[in-house]
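Example 249.
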Amino acid sequence: MPGTPEPPVVNEAPDVAAGLRAVRARIERAARACGRAPESVALLAVAKGHPPAALAAAHAAGQRRFGESYLQEALAKREALSGLEAEWHFIGPIQSNKAKRIAAHFDWVHSLDRPELAERLHRHRPEALAPLEVCIQVNVSGEASKRGVAPEKAAALAEVVAGLSRLRLRGLMAIPAPERDPRRQRIPFAALRALLEDLRTRGHTGLDTLSMGMSADLEAAVAEGATIVRVGTAIFGPRPLRRRAPPSG
Ligand SMILES: *Cc1c(COP(=O)(O)O)cnc(C)c1O
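Predicted structure in complex with pyridoxal-5'-phosphate:
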């Protein structure tokens, strides 16, 4: 084909490299629009529901950070891709009985939402590995259906995490309620950013991470200071394996 036309979105076989290029361009534009360096925003490729081949395609296109929400699926993919240099982030809800394997197989956890889970991750983080990088998930939209600690409980949880040597508290994560208006999208992201500032003034000076922004709202998140955006659909296309919240991980 002449030139480099944008490929059509094909559900079964989306062009992962093209998706990545498009998302990187969105991040770059959003960062420049608010005077930020594009490199200050890390892209986490969220491949949940997509087969190992999709991750391999992303890896071949230079992507190294991957996010997964379901433990069994993530472990199967890691197995299939063993040997590939990559950083693995767990971003889904965590049942306590999954903590041990998550502590052993991931570099980051974005979805820490309770003290008891922090203790478990700490206890099970293998000595041979660096401390687990963690973000506290905060429920900034105040919806009962969403995971995360209430904003007013984040400081107490941060204190717990700070006291655990096998965890390294990096920042905060949020999944706000879907919102189409780009200006309104910024409201919960601004709240998360303010909360991070508050934790810093309480002595958690090492916090440097705001994990926020997905396919539909990454520009708003970057404008409010996101340092990690978690993007699935815009890279990999619609998820072929639709599933509900996991009873079995
Ligand atoms: C699936 C998922 C994403 C990616 O969502 P898209 O809308 O597909 O970009 C980001 N964060 C979390 C926690 C997810 O579960």
